[in-house]
Amino acid sequence: MSAIDPGTAQRLKALYGHLDGKELLEALLLGELRGRIAVTSSFGAESAVLLDLVAEVDPATPVIFLDTGELFDETVAYRVELERKLGLTNVIVVRPTAEELAEAEDLWRDDIDRCCELRKVRPLARVTRAFDALVDGRKRAHGFDRESVGSIEDGIGVIKVSPLASWSAERIEQAFIARELPRHPLVAQNYRSIGCWPCTRPVEPGQSARAGRWAGQAKTECGIHTLAFGRDGAGI
Ligand code: SF4
């Protein structure tokens, strides 16, 4: 059973729902959730902004990086670059088991939901059992299923925290410039949301950043933000 009281998310929302960005991170990373809260990051096109704010608040915050086995080489290298530059001291690399990788081998060709479950949802569910709350970089400006994302949500078994939920693409860009953050190498090739290589495409000017993910298919989320996978291990 989850250790999270069903009312915890509502209580935190009432206390801190008016905050965002660094102020929200300070309230939660250094407050009552300290030691029980982690960040999940794809080290993708926009990730550096959230990670820089996290590093300013507490560089020892656990940062979970999911290596699906199908990432771009550029993402793997960028993770190392950002980790060093920002001074993050607790990046946790999570991978599928050998059995999951064997079953998932070429599933991205014809069963993307099962592929995401094996390469992403299950491995992440195992590691997040240790935490009561997860911070992510989702923004309403991403569109699709994210248009209504809140800064603090009840993820059923885990509290979901999105400090940049209300940030626009322009505000993210300004933060990159003001903070002199390095870019993911693929941004120069018009990749604006970057996941596994078989399921990520560059986007055209004016398109949503997420339009390059599972392009041409109905799928818009891999499941790690939409399924309940807190301490009760649902979905495993
Ligand atoms: S994003 Fe694509 S390759 Fe990655 S786990 Fe999902 S279906 Fe598989």
| CATH class descriptor | Alpha Beta
CATH architecture: 3-Layer(aba) Sandwich
Give the overall form.
globular
pLDDT < 50 runs, ≥5 residues = 229-236
- Cofactors and ligands present? iron/sulfur cluster
Question: Helical content, roughly?
Answer: 25-40%
Find the CATH topology: Rossmann fold
Q: Output the CATH homologous superfamily.
A: HUPs
Rg over CA atoms, rounded to whole Å, is: 17 Å
Main beta sheet strand tally, sense and closure: 6 strands, mixed
Strand fraction band?
5-15%
Count of structural domains: 1
What is the overall pLDDT average? Answer: 89
Number of helices: 7
Would you mind describing this structure in some detail?
It is a single chain. Strand 1, helix 3 and strand 2 form a beta-alpha-beta unit. A six-stranded mixed β-sheet has the order 3-2-1-4-6-5. Helix 2 crosses helix 3 and helix 5 runs antiparallel to helix 6. Helix content is 33%, strand content 9%. The protein has one domain: Rossmann fold, CATH 3.40.50.620. The C terminus is likely disordered. With 236 residues, it is an alpha/beta fold.
Write the layout of secondary structure elements.
Layout lengths: L7 H9 L4 H9 L7 E5 L5 H11 L5 E4 L6 H14 L4 E4 L3 H7 L7 H17 L4 E3 L16 E3 L4 E3 L7 H10 L58
Parallel strand pairs: 1-2, 1-4, 2-3, 4-6
Antiparallel strand pairs: 5-6
Helix pairs in contact: 2-3, 5-6
Bound molecules: iron/sulfur cluster.
Any descriptors?
alpha/beta; 9% strand; 7 helices; Rossmann fold; 6-stranded mixed β-sheet; 236 residues; binds iron/sulfur cluster; single chain
